[in-house]
Amino acid sequence: MSTSIPFDPSLALGNIVPQSHLDNLEQISAVQAPVDGALLELNSSLLLKHKLMMTLNELGNLGIDSSPIDKSMKEVDKTITTSATNYASKAAESLPKVAELRGKIQQVGDSIESPINYNKSNIKKIPISADSMTMDAQYFSFDQTEQSDQSVMATMKSFVSASTSFLGNSRSAQMTASMQQQVSHQREVHDIQGVLVITANCTHKNANLFAPFVIDVDKGIRAWNELVRTKALKGAQLIKTDDRASFEKAAKQSGTEKEVSYNLISGATYGSSFVGMVHVLKESSTQSSQNMYAAAASMQAQMKVGGWFSDMEGGFGVSSSFASSAKKLLSSQKITSHVSLVTMGIIPSIVADEVQLSVKQFSDFSPDKMMGQLAALQNSTNSDQASVTDAAGNARTGAQMMAIRNSEVKSVMLAVGEIDDGKNKMLDVNSLMTAFTDYVNKAGGGDVGVPIEYFLKPITANQLFQMWVAKYFPAKYVTSSGDDTAPEEPATNNEEGDVD
């Protein structure tokens, strides 16, 4: 993935440049450059691969021989492998170095006050650079649902034997009690995994420049002397405005290798970067069970009458209102979200998405085992030679089995539904996409970014001496200027009289 633009808060526009900080940023950029170059090479190879594949499909549709291109595709495959290996190697090599260099950048610090006269200076935006954007995005999504169900018929054998006997009140109570042990289980696991990585680097056309660039010479001298005392300017000496020898020495060193200077940031071009990653894992597990309970003991009288009518009609048991269905539901949901976002030059809008936590009702039931048992039971009532009475009994038994099946399906096969349990806010893939969209909009609007190219104005001791003389002895000894202020013309005899 592309690297983020290195930035040091101490290198603000107009500040005195801490040379060690600027050197550190340049080292980070130098280490990251081979990684960015390797990534660009890899993306170019992948783009060529996709273009050739589209060309092959088009030639195939037109019936044109594409065998020469097939040979070239093999060479492209080798290039992609080489590029990917090179990128991985350079990224792994540079990562520890970049981490070490970035560790030297402090978020909080102090610096000597800039000698720029902000009251007279002005910052102008000049479109001397260019707008550009390099983006790389990778997205992976995985959605999987698994369902399993089991039918546990612990007392089906006794239930079936009771159903084949003559129906009576006691038998009816016995069959209803045996249904209590029927339990149906279902388990559903739903996993959603999504990974999105977006990187982008932009350059912006507008540059900020001090124009005019005006220096307060007194502040400049104080800054020079402070840098000398802190040994930030090696080989430099204190500026003493009351010492003529100091003036002469600075003038002699002007333009030579011994001349020392400190730098002011007089302007900069800007860029911005967006490096974001989201990894979301959502695991939903639902386990449900349905137990059939019947209050047979407390309804003996009703069951005696209802069982007799049902027996005469070829039915089974009594009305469904005599059995209650209690649903036990266990559902759990686990969400893991890892979001990483580093932006330089732009602060995008971060929007959290609303996640609905829900559980599912009992949604499915597999009665395969029950059907097998019912078929076995029905076969047990068949005989090679059957009397009229046997046939009538078998018909009644068959009707009872159908009633059992209908009752079971009606009580167990429920529609799928979701119960809203709560809502939470979290950062996910949509949050990163919203942030990136806002980043692009702000990047296109301009007036954003961090410095990627610094314009440095060196300030020497000789310049400060000349500016000091020009300020306190205007147009008398020095007519040059060390900043953007216009030098004053020399005084004439008509204006000020004779000068001794």
Descriptive account of the structure:
The protein is of the alpha+beta class. Among the domains are: 19-110; 136-198 and 274-440, no CATH class. It has 12 helices and 8 strands. The protein has helices spanning 19-62, 67-102, 156-163, 169-179, 217-229, 244-253, 300-312, 368-380, 388-412, 429-445, 461-472, 493-496; strands at 123-126, 132-153, 182-210, 261-294, 323-344, 353-360, 418-426, 450-460. Strands 1, 2, 3, 4, 5 and 8 form a 6-stranded antiparallel sheet that branches. Strands 6-7 form a two-stranded antiparallel ribbon. The chain is elongated and about 140 Å long.
Q: What is the H/E order?
A: HHEEHHEHHEHEEHHEHEHH
Main sheet makeup: 6 strands, antiparallel
Rg result:
43 Å
Q: Got a strand count? A: 8
* Share of helix, binned: 40-55%
N-C termini distance: 73 Å
Mean of residue pLDDT values? 75
Shape: elongated
Low-confidence stretches: 152-162, 179-183, 290-299, 319-329, 359-367, 412-421, 494-500
The amount of beta strand, in percent, is: 25-35%
Please report the number of helical segments.
Answer: 12
The chain-level structural class is alpha+beta
Summarize this, please?
This protein is of the alpha+beta class and 500 residues long.
Question: Descriptors for this entry?
Answer:
single chain; 500 residues; alpha+beta; two-stranded antiparallel sheet; 8 strands
